[in-house]
Write a structure and sequence with these properties.
- The chain has 370 residues and is an alpha/beta fold.
- Helices cover 21% and strands 29% of the residues.
- The protein has 8 helices and 28 strands.
- A hairpin with a 2-residue loop joins strand 6 and strand 7.
- The protein is globular, with a radius of gyration of 22 Å.
- The N and C termini lie far apart (54 Å).
- Pathway: Glycan biosynthesis; glycogen biosynthesis.
- It catalyses: alpha-D-glucose 1-phosphate + ATP + H(+) = ADP-alpha-D-glucose + diphosphate.
- This is Glucose-1-phosphate adenylyltransferase.
């Protein structure tokens, strides 16, 4: 089995955080980037060949994921391969949808002659052993297996919902139904038997009535043709960090729900870039409570219920509450920030007061001096 990570979306709901970089490259959790999670899951699951399909504002993302050694995928016969759209004899086409992105890379996949292809999203926070997903797929002799997670029924209309029989065979797929029949939400994580998927992708490529999307086109076509589709229930932590609020919430979960998302678990490491920063410094007069603080951070002021990323600085008299400071942020003397995400390398000037709410998380993407 090889993996293909879809990492080319614009991520417009993250507003200015994705103005210059792709969503999977957005910083998270002190020292990580979102793409670290699916890549680390692949490495920990023993998947040796990973294609990362990039498109929108991909310079930083391409450079980042090309360093295969970060995830231990730099040995002979393994690797992370950056796969942007390519010019071919028939011309140059951007990826038109999730399925089309895989279709345009059929030649890459065929080089490895896999029996199965794992298709992943590059913008979710979770830890999953894909071997267990593969076990479900093989046990059921499935054509496709889709990871699902239970969501509150009153929120199910926000998701693609899988309706199954008692054996978790999928009998119906509903995209954001007004009246959901179940609460099994698709996680956007699929295992396909490659020979079957390849046939359907080529058919989809020739169709004039398609959006070239797995959820909208490929999965419904499988069901229409009576293919064996099964759901794989997942009962761990999973978060789609596609909005400013959800990104803030997931960072706060590192403090409030560390038992569900433990990034210090040595049995399932999340690998990332090591910037070589020194140890954190907590000043003599600093006040720190309920905080998640990474290497290189310098705290001289007050930090409460906040995530402080690599090389961020909170100067004397500054107060940071309910806030995510991304790498390199500087909060100057006597400034205060509450309910916010501060973008990388931004400086908040002396005495500046910034206050959001739990329902309105501030996103500060430039220096603020008054």
């Amino acid at each position: 089995m090889l993996a293909m990570i879809l990492a080319g979306g614009r991520g417009t709901r993250l507003e200015s955080l994705t103005k210059k970089i792709a969503k999977p490259a957005v910083a998270y959790g002190g020292k990580y980037r979102i793409i670290d999670f699916p890549l680390s899951n692949c490495a920990n699951s023993g998947i040796d060949v990973v294609g990362v399909l990039t498109q929108y504002e991909s310079i930083l993302l391409n450079a980042y994921v090309s360093q295969s050694q970060r995830w231990g995928l730099d040995t002979q016969g393994s690797g992370i391969f950056v796969l942007p759209p390519r010019e071919k004899i028939e011309g140059f086409n951007l990826y038109k949808g999730t399925a089309d992105a895989i279709t345009q890379n059929i030649d890459f996949i065929d080089l490895y002659e896999p029996e199965y292809v794992l298709v992943l999203s590059g913008d979710h926070i979770y830890k999953m052993n894909y071997d267990k997903l593969l076990e479900t797929h093989e046990k059921n002799q499935a054509d496709a297996t889709i990871a699902v997670i239970e969501v509150p029924l009153d929120e199910a209309s926000r998701f693609g919902i899988m309706n199954t029989d008692k054996d978790y065979r999928i009998v119906e797929f509903e995209e954001k139904p007004a009246k959901p029949k179940s609460n099994l939400a698709s996680m956007g994580i699929y295992i396909f038997t490659w020979k079957t998927l390849k046939k359907y992708l080529l058919q989809d490529e020739e169709s004039t009535e398609t959006s070239h999307d797995f959820g909208k086109d490929i999965i419904p076509k499988y069901l229409e043709d009576g293919k064996r589709l099964f759901a794989h229930p997942f009962r761990g932590y999973w978060k789609d960090v596609g909005t400013v609020t959800s990104l803030w919430e997931s960072n706060m979960d590192l403090i409030d729900h560390s038992d569900q998302l433990n990034l210090s678990d040595s049995t399932w490491k999340v690998y990332s870039e090591d910037k070589g920063s020194p140890a954190q410094v907590i000043g003599e007069n600093a006040v720190v409570s309920s905080a998640y603080i990474d290497k290189g951070a310098v705290i001289e002021g007050t930090v409460n219920h906040s995530v402080i990323s690599t090389d961020a600085v909170v100067q004397e008299g500054a107060v940071v509450t309910n806030t995510v400071l991304l790498p390199g942020v500087r909060i100057s003397k006597n400034a205060s920030v509450d309910f916010a995400i501060i973008s990388e390398n931004v400086t908040i000037g002396e005495g500046v007061q910034l206050k959001g709410t739990a329902d309105n998380i501030l996103l500060i993407d430039r220096n603020v001096n008054k």
